[in-house]
């Protein structure tokens, strides 16, 4: 049966007859409720499993990562610069020289890491936004997200993992520099509070990345199983057609 577009009056490119013969089997094995969950935009299931659509999903994920990295890096690097500028040190200060050196090194590393993540996000994000705003899956190959995948992951790791760890260390050192001459008890109190916060942060980061890897593994295994089932269905259909052709030839000979 032909499908016609109500807006243009032409044959729709999503006519089931345009896809493989196994589309009917796929439709039977995937109820409408599952198909609806897979796509809210009305795309056929075979389009959802195409390489272009998978690349489009990676493009959206990379875009979200770069946006989050840019915002986080700009915010935290600004806080670090303000902390360095606003700290007041006098000649009579008894703050140890090693602590001042640690404060300068940590602040410089913090700003440098976030500036690197911000630079990567600022350079790559406009090229991805230009493709995303077109809302055309056929143009996904023009986006650099596949080739620059490692740069995107580097910006994400610098902004969310390394940058946040440096920011927590920066707070601890800043408390010592600020309260060393006034009250060392206040500095120790800040460190005692920040140590469990840092431990919880590291535990959550490890748990999050392990869960993310496990989720990607499960999705990949599920996709491989569906491909194996599809292969078995194709082979079974070929065997049935071959047997039917053989019986037809034998009957014609008789």
From TrEMBL:
Keywords: Membrane, Transmembrane, Transmembrane helix. The chain crosses the membrane at residues 68-87, 99-120, 155-179, 185-209. It is a multi-pass membrane protein. It is found in: Membrane. It holds the Pfam family Orai-1. InterPro entries: CRAC_channel (IPR012446), Orai_sf (IPR038350). GO terms for molecular function: store-operated calcium channel activity. Belongs to the Orai family. This is Calcium release-activated calcium channel protein 1. It comes from Bemisia tabaci. The lineage of its organism: Eukaryota, Metazoa, Ecdysozoa, Arthropoda, Hexapoda.
């Amino acid at each position: 049966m032909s499908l016609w577009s109500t807006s243009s009056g032409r044959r729709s490119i999503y006519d089931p007859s345009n896809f493989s013969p196994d589309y009917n089997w796929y439709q039977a094995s995937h109820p409408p409720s599952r198909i609806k969950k897979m796509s809210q935009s009305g795309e056929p299931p075979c389009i959802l499993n195409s390489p272009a659509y998978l690349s489009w999903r990676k493009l959206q994920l990379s875009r979200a990562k770069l946006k989050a990295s840019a915002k986080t890096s700009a915010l935290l690097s600004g806080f670090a610069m303000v902390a360095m500028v606003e700290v007041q040190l006098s000649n009579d200060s008894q703050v140890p020289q090693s602590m001042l050196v640690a404060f300068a090194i940590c602040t410089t590393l913090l700003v440098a890491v976030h500036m690197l993540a911000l630079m990567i996000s600022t350079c790559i994000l406009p090229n991805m936004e230009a493709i995303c705003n077109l809302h055309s899956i056929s143009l996904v190959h023009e986006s650099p997200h596949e080739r620059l995948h490692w740069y995107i992951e580097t910006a994400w790791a610098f902004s969310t993992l390394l940058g946040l760890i440096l920011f927590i260390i920066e707070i601890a050192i800043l408390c010592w520099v600020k309260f060393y001459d006034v009250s060392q008890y206040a500095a120790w109190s800040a460190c005692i509070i920040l140590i469990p916060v840092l431990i919880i942060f590291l535990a959550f980061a490890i748990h999050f990345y392990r869960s993310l890897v496990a989720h990607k593994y499960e999705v990949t295994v599920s996709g491989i199983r569906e491909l194996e089932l599809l292969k078995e269905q194709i082979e079974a259909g070929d065997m049935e057609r071959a047997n039917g052709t053989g019986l037809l030839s034998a009957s014609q000979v008789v």
